[in-house]
Write a structure and sequence with these properties.
The protein is about 30% helix and about 15% strand. With about 325 residues, the protein is α/β, with parallel strands linked by helices. Helix 1 packs parallel to helix 2 and helix 3 crosses helix 5. The longest helix has 17 residues. It folds into two domains: about 120 residues, 3-Layer(aba) Sandwich (Rossmann fold), CATH 3.40.50; about 180 residues, Rossmann fold, CATH 3.40.50.720.
């Protein structure tokens, strides 16, 4: 194998970077998050790896200078920032960490549904108050989980929900790509979005960030939902119009929301979401298992082995759709 130069744009202190020596002796690499150093190294880079702490500005600057770039891999699943660079119009393959976080996010979806079904918030408050509070709880069995975005995350959630005997209805841009799927009860096209909102007891958003998904759930969609329904967002924060969601929660158009992603992150201090009773907020940590960065790095290492042996790369981004 000819010698390869790898530029890693990331926070150099990341523990997952200890796996880099597994690339073998034929690879020269350097890790930096500094824009000046990234620009200096980029012209000789055959491969760019973007990791935790990689600034979008630094990544774009490096891509612009990468004259001999043959492949870019992202340790995150979202690549919308990369699609805003010259890579989108180039023949340079882009791959991502699709699948590394799906199982954890699928579990989080179940946790969010159970949080509301069993009213765990009320239980904790009653416990803290020393109050013997008897009330009725709900079941997930027989309820409908609607899924907007039936990729790896949506499927992971669907498999778990199916074990609770829930009905699964998924929406995706290309329903034909789910031919033969044995988990979802029904798979609809995007033209039935409002219908999905109306029949879902729980609605999971698990979509990538593209121009088509920005604000895909706004006032019309929220008003179409049942008054006792719950919305769960594990995809991208801008998929929901947050101003409309705040009104929906305050005026009880819906029962509640579980949000792991937001339009602005970190969520600003004193944001109204922190003070609403009918919302579960997590700080974009639903996929942060103890090994989440190492799990993602393993996908890159597997892909590197394929790259050096001439095999097709896994997790190729479709630049036409942006994910």
């Amino acid at each position: 194998m000819p010698s390869l130069n790898l530029l890693v744009i990331a926070e150099p202190t990341g523990s997952y970077l200890s796996l880099l020596p597994e690339l073998g002796p034929g690879v020269t690499y350097e890790v930096t998050k500094e824009i000046a150093r990234a620009e200096e190294l980029a012209p000789s880079a055959d491969i760019i790896l973007t990791g935790v702490g990689a600034s979008g500005v630094t990544v774009k600057a490096a891509i612009d200078k990468a004259e001999k770039l043959q492949w870019l891999h992202s340790l995150s699943a979202g690549v919308d920032h990369l699609m805003a660079t010259r890579l989108r119009q180039s023949d340079i393959p882009v791959t991502n960490a699709k699948g590394a976080y799906s199982q954890s996010l699928g579990e989080y979806c179940l946790a969010a549904m159970l949080f509301f079904a069993k009213d765990l918030n009320r239980m904790r408050k009653s416990q803290a108050a020393g109050k013997w509070d008897v009330f009725d709880v709900d079941m997930l069995e027989g309820k409908t989980l609607g899924i907007l975005g039936y990729g790896d995350i949506g499927k992971a959630a669907a498999r778990r929900a199916k074990a609770f005997d829930m009905k699964i209805i998924a929406l995706r841009r290309r329903p034909d790509r789910s031919a033969g799927d044995e988990t979802a009860d029904e798979i609809w096209g995007m033209d039935r979005k409002l219908e999905l909102m109306a029949v879902s007891d729980y609605l999971l958003l698990a979509m990538p960030a593209t121009p088509d998904t920005k604000g895909i759930v706004a006032e019309p969609e929220l008003r179409a939902m049942k008054s006792d329904s719950v919305i769960i967002n594990l995809g991208r924060g801008n998929a929901i119009d947050e101003k409309s969601l705040i009104v929906a929660l305050q005026e009880k158009w819906i029962r509640g929301a579980a949000l792991d992603v937001f339009e602005v992150e970190p969520l600003p201090d004193n944001h109204v979401f922190y003070n609403l009773e009918n919302i579960l907020v997590s700080a974009h940590t639903a996929d942060h298992t103890k090994t989440w960065t190492e799990d993602s790095m393993r996908i890159f290492l597997a892909n590197f082995a394929r790259y050096t042996s001439g095999q097709p790369l896994l997790n190729l981004v479709d630049k036409g759709v942006g994910y």
